[in-house]
Write a structure and sequence with these properties.
By secondary structure, the chain is mostly helical. It contains 31 helices and 11 strands. Helix 5 packs antiparallel against helix 6 and helix 20 crosses helix 23. The chain starts with a helix and ends in a 20-residue tail after the last helix. The relative contact order is 0.06.
């Protein structure tokens, strides 16, 4: 630094680069280098080695402090050392420019700075001499005299014209240096998610167009068509995912995709297949309406079996048992008893036909495997139960040992006790086939053929023949699809939560795929829903047939040796009761400990960061904020009279998924305390970072999105974005779980308290087309929404022990910084 700073000072007159401001820092660096072995006992990372066994300077620290470590290096060849120092000085100046741009225009230059620092470091990294030799031609070609950044950039452009030099492996380092200098000189680049130029090009369907074949206007005999090549920009996987969510076609965002468009002027056919623009627009709207209607599940509710149809169906299934058990009225290979057992299992398990055909029976629960798939259906003869694997989200993450201590261990099996007498049909069928199955060592309930596709054809034909006969006799409209889906629809109607119906039946549904990631209903809840729904069906059938309710089943009840209320299914990140309360206590204790060391170095930084983390966690566990950077960008998103807050996290540019949440009074008071804390923080920063201080003096009073409402601080007085990665890092010692566990916690706690499934979905922002809570055709009012969610959120906050704490004040006394 003693050599680099004077060189940088010749290029610029910016006062922060003067060397007299850094003597203390230089002394610390010299001490660390000279006493590395002595400090290794306390700082193990000093002596860490790389993967190949070599000891590199500052191992595993480059990603955290790339600029400082790069400036530490010296070029081994003294002949070209001055050129390398000049390159380091330009790196320091570019970083200085990028910091100004990041604070002023909310840009992000992390990627170009990391790449530039890595290239410069590799030029002088003695632990890799082969890399030094590889990049030596670049160092030799660089200028030796001090020049301005603009002149240096012009020289880099000349290197690109040198055909002998601009080739592998030098081509990539030249491009990296050119991009760094160009961004710093021209104030370009640094596009973040909001200002990404390539992202805007995707949204606007922009592309690079090149005419391949065309005819001249004055050429009367030229070609009547033109050929145009359209090449899309190369995109990363994240950008492709953003474009897909925004509605772009897959071919528009794939890397290296080139479309060839042929325009034939002689062909008068319309791309809208002859429809007028108005008709085409109407057609598009009709498709949207059809999707919206389908997502409301209105057709399924209307298509549910009527009480008459259900009574006739179950009555005719019972008649199959009363007839000769060996007769085959509906299939040459399927007896009446087997068909009755198949239809009984199909309806009362709620599973698909494929799952029922491959179902098995077990004598005891202990005989079955501990881990089953959702489509692996079992009938337990001894305890009279249905059992299958728990339906899990499609995306499953491995839980480490530290996370397991904070979350419930999800149960791998769903066990559904059968309370009515329909299981007698299954039991009688098991008694008939038990000896036969023992001979072939198979426990499948239905064994028409080993192959599912072959067996399914025969069973489908028998079922359709049976239902056709019932329809002709009783004037009903029973179908295989309606019979197979009826129980799942009734489970959803009783529960109000589609995910519970999915887990009970083991069948997935596209409208519950997202919710399944966050839902972890207890096994006791699932059994209650299943038994209550079956009881409703039995009562309805008996009333329709004018018969008394059947007596309770005589099969012995299973001995409950475990507590099903403590066994959870579905998602794997449901926090245990008391974990959030411990988090609150730990955060407040950390904040209080920082107050006791008010005279220590960086005290105000640690105090502000601890305070911000507490407010951010409180807001997350009150609103269900997703794991996004800079939550609650502006305090003006809150209505202080009603308590409503508008949230748009992980949303599109059309704000379709923006949602309305209600914040408890405690949260609103805490946000006001935080606003006052930031304003007093600005007074303490006035000499350290004047620009940031001026913004903080009126923090939250104006509609300004340049400075997020919640933010962290660096020891040098600069802002640090509140990102999920940073939150996880700051809380790694007390809260070793993913950052979005607050959404799982809120969903499951609200459902356990009896909150409606639809209200919970609206609260967390889970809806599809046609399910919008406050759309033009929605009947839900915000007041009704608040009246249902308010008591539950208030109770959750009281149980978890959240309370208001104050931060900086005018007097900065401990009396004004207490919890209440």
């Amino acid at each position: 630094m003693k050599v680099i700073l004077p060189i940088a000072q010749q290029i610029t007159d910016d006062w922060p680069l003067k060397s007299e401001y850094l003597p203390g820092w230089l002394q610390i660096c010299d001490y660390v280098v000279k006493n590395a072995d002595k400090l290794s006992a306390d700082f193990i990372e000093i002596n860490q080695k790389s993967s190949n066994g070599k000891r590199a300077p500052f191992p595993k620290q480059f990603e955290q402090h790339p600029i400082y470590i790069t400036l530490w290096y010296r070029y081994p060849d003294l002949t070209y050392q001055n050129r390398f120092h000049l390159l380091q000085a330009l790196l320091l100046l570019c970083q200085h420019e990028f910091r100004i741009l990041e604070e002023s225009y909310e840009k992000d230059y992390t990627s170009p700075m990391h790449l530039s620092a890595r290239v410069i470091r590799q030029c002088a990294e003695t632990t890799h001499p082969e890399k030094i030799q590889e990049l030596k031609p670049l160092i030799q070609a660089l200028p030796d005299a001090v020049a301005s950044m603009t002149e240096y950039l012009d020289f880099i452009y000349t290197l690109e014209d040198d055909k002998d030099l601009y080739k592998d492996p030098i081509i990539n380092p030249i491009d990296v240096l050119r991009r760094m200098l160009r961004y710093a000189v021209e104030h370009r680049g640094g596009y973040n998610r909001r200002h990404n130029r390539a992202w805007e090009a995707i949204i606007n369907r922009e592309a690079v167009r090149e005419i391949i074949v065309c005819s001249e206007p004055e050429d009367r005999q030229g070609a009547a068509f033109s050929v145009e090549a359209i090449s899309m920009f190369s995109q990363t996987e994240k950008q492709e995912e953003k474009a897909r969510l925004a509605g772009c076609a897959a071919g528009e965002v794939k890397t290296g995709v080139e479309h060839v468009v042929i325009q034939d002027n002689t062909d008068a056919r319309s791309p809208m297949a002859g429809r007028s623009p108005i008709a085409h627009l109407r057609r598009s709207r009709e498709k949207y309406k059809n999707i919206a209607m389908a997502n409301q599940l209105l057709a399924n509710r209307w298509d549910c079996l009527t009480a008459y149809e259900l009574a006739i169906f179950l009555h005719e299934v019972s008649n199959l048992v009363r007839r000769s058990r060996i007769e085959s009225d509906y299939g040459h290979q399927i007896s009446n008893m087997e068909l009755a057992a198949l239809l009984t299992a199909l309806y009362w398990s709620g599973s698909s036909l494929d799952t029922v055909i491959m179902a098995k029976f077990e004598e005891y629960r202990a005989d079955s495997k501990q881990k089953l798939d959702a489509n692996d259906l079992r009938f337990l003869v001894d305890t009279n139960e249905w059992m299958h694997g728990s339906l899990r989200p499609t995306y499953q993450s491995n839980l480490d040992s530290q996370t397991k201590a904070y979350v419930y261990n999800t149960y791998t099996r769903v066990i559904l006790p059968i309370e009515n007498n329909h299981s007698n049909i299954i039991r009688r069928w098991v008694w008939l086939i038990e000896d036969e199955r023992k001979k072939i060592h198979c426990k499948r309930l239905f064994y028409l053929d080993k192959a599912l596709d072959v067996a399914k054809i025969g069973y489908e034909l028998a079922i359709k023949t049976f239902l056709a006969k019932v329809n002709r006799q009783y004037k009903t409209r029973l179908t295989l699809t309606r019979v197979a889906n009826d129980l799942m629809i009734r489970l959803y109607q009783y529960s109000g939560d589609l995910t519970e119906a999915m887990i009970i039946t083991g069948r997935s549904h596209h409208l519950g795929a997202v919710q399944l990631h966050y839902s972890s209903p207890s096994l006791a809840r699932l059994q209650t829903v299943y038994q209550a729904t079956c009881q409703q069906i039995t009562t309805s059938v008996c009333q329709t047939l004018n018969r008394p309710l059947p007596a309770a089943s005589t099969v012995k009840k299973p001995v409950k040796t475990d507590h099903v209320s403590d066994q959870y299914t579905g998602g794997r990140h449901y926090l245990k009761h008391g974990v959030v309360a411990n988090l609150v206590d730990d955060l407040i204790e950390r904040f209080s400990d920082t107050l006791r060391f008010s005279g220590c170095l960086d005290y105000w930084v640690e105090l502000h960061n601890d305070y911000t983390l507490y407010v951010a966690e409180m807001l997350g566990f009150a609103s269900g904020y997703r794991a996004v950077s800079n939550p609650l960008e502006c305090i003006h998103q809150i209505d202080w009279q009603t308590g409503f807050c508008c949230i748009s996290d992980k949303d599109n540019l059309d704000y379709y998924n923006a949602r309305l949440v209600w914040l408890p009074v405690l949260v609103r008071e805490q946000l006001l305390h935080y606003q006052m804390h930031c304003q007093y923080l600005g007074e303490r920063l006035i000499l350290i970072s004047p620009k940031v201080a001026r913004q903080l003096l009126a923090h939250g009073e104006h509609l300004d999105y340049r400075l997020p409402f919640l933010f962290l601080m660096k020891p040098n007085g600069r802002l640090l974005k509140l990102t999920p990665e940073e939150i996880k890092k700051q809380l790694s010692d007390i809260f070793k779980v993913p950052c979005n566990v607050n959404r799982r916690y809120l969903r499951n706690r609200l459902r356990e308290m009896g909150c409606s499934g639809e209200i919970v979905n609206y609260f967390l922002g889970h809806w599809e087309n046609g399910e919008e809570p406050f759309g033009c055709y929605a009947s839900l009012s915000p007041s009704e929404y608040r009246s249902e969610i308010e008591p539950h959120l208030t109770q959750i906050f009281e149980e978890d022990g959240w309370r208001c704490i104050q931060g900086f004040s005018r007097t900065n006394s401990s009396n004004n910084q207490h919890g209440r």
